[in-house]
Amino acid sequence: MPSTVKSAVILLADDDEDDVVLIRDSFQKAKLSNDLHVVEDGVELLDYLKRRGAHADPARSPRPDIILLDLNMPRMDGREALKEIKNDPQLKEIPVIILTTSQTHADILRSYQDGANCFITKPVTFQSMCEVVSTFGEYWFQIVRLPER
């Protein structure tokens, strides 16, 4: 296993401000040196990925190595956004990790059927989130080989 971890661009799509803070703080505590970008819904997620509007500048909106996607968001939810990403030949290889409060079998099954690479139910405490983020970091940045940007 490599001893150094490449810094990755992570795009978090989540409309809950408290969850965003919790996730951001968990990344810092886990000492993951990643570039975390945040969008608030599926519409903004696709704007970011397709470099439209406020996300047109690639320097400010770099292509993500991984997308963390909440299912329940306004305007366009994560279910719709996942389908669009996985049906787009230029985006479909980006790993999409569902990170949501849902625990329903239907959401889990549908997410995998629509191309999600992983499904994680959001922990509710800071300590639990830190443990999930630490394990996430070890798995996705030390074990898994991601496509080159």
Question: Summed up, what is this model?
Answer:
The chain has 149 residues and is an alpha/beta fold.
Q: What is the count of distinct domains?
A: 1
Distance between the termini: 21 Å
CATH class: Alpha Beta
Which homologous superfamily in CATH is the superfamily?
Response regulator
Structural class: alpha/beta
Strand order of the largest sheet: 2-1-3-4-5
**Which H/E pattern describes the elements?**
EHEHEHEHEH
Number of strands: 5
Regions with little confidence, pLDDT below 50 for 5+ residues: 1-5
Strand fraction equals: 15-25%
CATH architecture name: 3-Layer(aba) Sandwich
CATH fold label: Rossmann fold
Helix content: 25-40%
Mean pLDDT: 90
Overall 3D form: globular
Radius of gyration: 14 Å
Explain this structure.
By secondary structure, the chain is of the alpha/beta class. The protein has a single domain (9-143), classed as Response regulator (Rossmann fold, 3-Layer(aba) Sandwich). The protein is 38% helix and 15% strand. The chain contains 5 helices and 5 strands. The chain has a 5-stranded parallel sheet. The longest helix is centred in the last third of the chain and has 18 residues, at 126-143. It is globular.
